[in-house]
């Protein structure tokens, strides 16, 4: 592979590695509990069935956010057979049933996008939307137990016979979150050699297939430009510094921000106004190592899975595949042979466009 092909493959593979590494400790806000239940994460780990403090049992099974467990979007329409883990008092892990190194639903949807693009011989938002609906409503298509607010809201609308391109919705709270970045990564890669305007238009269009938002636009564009800079061989720390200054002003200095953290890493929730600066922190601080970055992201707790995907893509782009990845990440990713084939097929497609 050429150096750029290694970077592109590293970005896609890093997405899956970052997601799977943080998966067992997703949304753990008590670091003492994280240490007690899992020790220090040093690779891929299977999640425990139970998670004391999980709010899965407070989430709405009929739509977005928190709410009643009487609805049946979860169980009957999507996440078939999983509603039992959402019932009140359950304290079940969000990703109960996944194996060590297995990917969450958000990363699984990236695989849907990769496959649908290759089958269609080009990336098509409409084709992906059709395949998204089919994947989500087909029993046994994936093993995850959790689906975020945007998906529950989408299918709450879908069962009302609303047109698929109008099912995306927003609850004003949980939709404008960092998990929106995950699905953008292959789109950014596909359009990396097109104009910035077209690339970012397609990125925003893709996000709005499954969630209705414009509040995320500046972050989507910033991440898109940052990833392309690194894919084109730009230094990761310099690219992160440029992104920070564009978003937060010329006085923003990642070197100073990381220095002021005094060695600690941020624990943040999923909301983009706090999670995007945290992503930049990890990318800048751990720019020298894919392994150090994804492990630090996992062990910091909080909303680390979506950040892990976006971070893994940046570090993978900076260091390339396979040499930038440790043995455990190259060998232990669940279903890695199929994932690598899907990545290779997608890269070949994007280079042929």
User: What do we call the CATH homologous superfamily?
Assistant: ADP-ribosylation/Crystallin J1
Count up the helices: 16
For this structure, the CATH topology is ADP-ribosylglycohydrolase fold
User: What is the end-to-end distance?
Assistant: 18 Å
Helix share of residues?
Answer: 40-55%
Question: Low-confidence parts, pLDDT < 50 over ≥5 residues?
Answer: none
Gyration radius, rounded: 19 Å
Average pLDDT works out at 96
Give the structural class: mainly alpha
The count of DSSP E runs of length 2 or more, i.e. the number of strands, is 0
- The CATH class name reads Mainly Alpha
Order of helices and strands: HHHHHHHHHHHHHHHH
Kindly estimate the percentage of residues that lie in beta strands according to DSSP. under 5%
How would you explain this protein's 3D organization?
The chain is 54% helix and 0% strand. The protein has 353 residues and is mostly helical. It has a single domain (3-352), classed as ADP-ribosylglycohydrolase fold (Orthogonal Bundle), CATH 1.10.4080. Helix 1 (3-22) runs parallel beside helix 13 (290-299), helix 7 (184-190) crosses helix 9 (217-231) and helix 13 runs antiparallel to helix 14 (305-319). The longest helix has 20 residues, at 3-22. The two termini are 18 Å apart.
Features:
single chain, 353 residues, mainly alpha, ADP-ribosylglycohydrolase fold, 54% helix, 0% strand, globular
Characterize this entry briefly.
This protein is mainly α and 353 residues long. It is 54% helix and 0% strand.
Task: List the topology elements.
Elements: H1 3-22, H2 31-38, H3 73-77, H4 105-120, H5 125-137, H6 149-158, H7 184-190, H8 196-210, H9 217-231, H10 236-248, H11 254-260, H12 272-285, H13 290-299, H14 305-319, H15 327-332, H16 336-352
